Amino acid sequence: xxAGKQKMTAEDIQLRRSYRAEAVANGFIWLAxxxxxxxxxxxxxxxxxxxxxxxxxxxxxxxxxxxxxxxVDSGESMSIVVNExxxxxxxxxxxxxxxxxxxxxxxxxxxxxxxxxxPYAYTASAYTASAYTAKDPRGASLAAFLFGPDGGFSSSVxxxxxxxxxxxxxxxxxxAVGLVPASMAASAKGVRVISLRRIVAVVNPAVVxxxxxxxxxxxxxxxxxxxxxxxxxxxxxxxxxDLPISFIAPPSGSVAATVLASAGYGIPPSAQRxxxxxxxxxxxxxxxxxxxxxxxxxxxxxxxxxxxxxxxETGPNLSINFLLEEPKAAGRVGGISSIxxxxxxxxxxxxxxxxxxGIAAAIYLIEYAKQGKMLDILRxxxxxLAGIPSIIFGLFGFIVFVSTLHLGIGLxxxxxxxxxxxxxxxxxxxxEALKSVPRDYREGSLALGATKLQTIFKVVxxxxxxxxxxxxxxxxxxxxxxxxxxLFTMGFDYRLVKDFRSSARMLSVHLYQMVQEGISFNRxxxxxxxxxxxxxxxxxxxxxxIGRMNRMSGK
Length: 555
What we know:
Layout lengths: L1 H51 E8 L9 E2 L5 E7 L6 E3 H9 L6 H4 L6 E5 L17 H8 L10 E3 L2 H10 L3 E6 H4 L5 E7 L1 E5 L14 E2 L1 H9 L16 E2 L7 H8 L14 H10 L3 E6 H6 L4 E11 L3 H5 L12 H32 L4 H15 L2 H15 L6 H25 L3 H9 L4 H30 L2 H4 L19 H10 L4 H33 L2
Parallel strand pairs: 4-8, 5-6, 5-7, 10-13, 11-12
Antiparallel strand pairs: 1-13, 2-3, 3-7, 3-8, 9-12, 9-13
């Protein structure tokens, strides 16, 4: 009995050790799986977040403080109105001047729209101007506000007889922008009132000098608050050089003082308080660490040194307009509608070329080919091709399809190259799917009098269809995400393809261009989000189809 108990105890110990080893192994497996899932969720979540929501920091000459209305040289309070189709939040003083001073203004840079700007102004009688310029006898006061006493509107400006006429024209004209009295703009229908930003930060030249590899470059919103609150006493606290800050307040009653006060910026107690603009400029020049604030036009007229101010801009990124509009200016404006369609065309053509060939090759290798060294070599070659970098396929496609066969850089050359690239994947997965079909299915079909060909296409292939479809989905995912193979064979044209030889840009190539050329990271994230959504839709549709096939086959 004692020996039996001793033997049982040894077995228990061994069993416990086995359980512990299994628990440790399972723990490592779960840990690895958990880390993988977390990383995938983090990467995809980051892309999707920035794809749907833009969060960028941009540097401007003017401060991030805006005026809903502003006074022109005549003393009249004016506002900027735009057509509702114009997608802008506000304008800088320079933006407004460009719109009314350029012979062919547009919204390309300001709103990323392929839309011509149509500026409207009204006659001088409504401006109560005391003087008129030779260039622009009808809008002297407003022209002087934008261009100075010697400037004038460009020939692109259309004049109306009254502010009411301007509001009516702006409401009916896409891309229109007008300047009307603030009292009328507030109650206008069919237009949007946008704000003007014209306050700039000016500094003494010593502030932006380079010392010990340090240089002050721009104000952030946080550094502006530190400056106005008096928390920052030295420029090294704002990532500048070691130099005491000398805050010179804008003169009381000036535009800069009024706008900054309305935005909640107070003047620090230690600030110098000049009474006139001339004194402000003189004190700024005398103080090495001097900083002050004035209007863009005042700084330009007095040739003061301005520094950039950063502004954080947030809002929706991926929009209906981005999906439906065609790209323009190398993708800088517009949307990606034609690029999405080009990608869909490429996927359809690739499936038409690769699916029949891949499945047929797999059927031959499983059902007809004799097992031996030659077949092993073929399988090794197929697996090797599946692992070859896509850039090599791109080089091969350029040499064979583009140069040798003279198909040119276009949709057909790119599609054939992608077809060669994904064929190994389709062949190998289709082989495995055909192998998984029980031998009894084949023997039962043949015993009932069916031919081998009938057995393959009516019994074996339908039974292996879920596995074959899975391989096709994997191949589509790789095709949609390929870039290198398409750079040499399909081209970069973002317009909708007209025929098989037309150059075409895919979503993956467009994403590469956006990032590589630094065109727009927001647009790059939006494009990446669309790409992920397309792959997700394909996978979900295929999963439902596979599930239906399994239910029909009784699996």
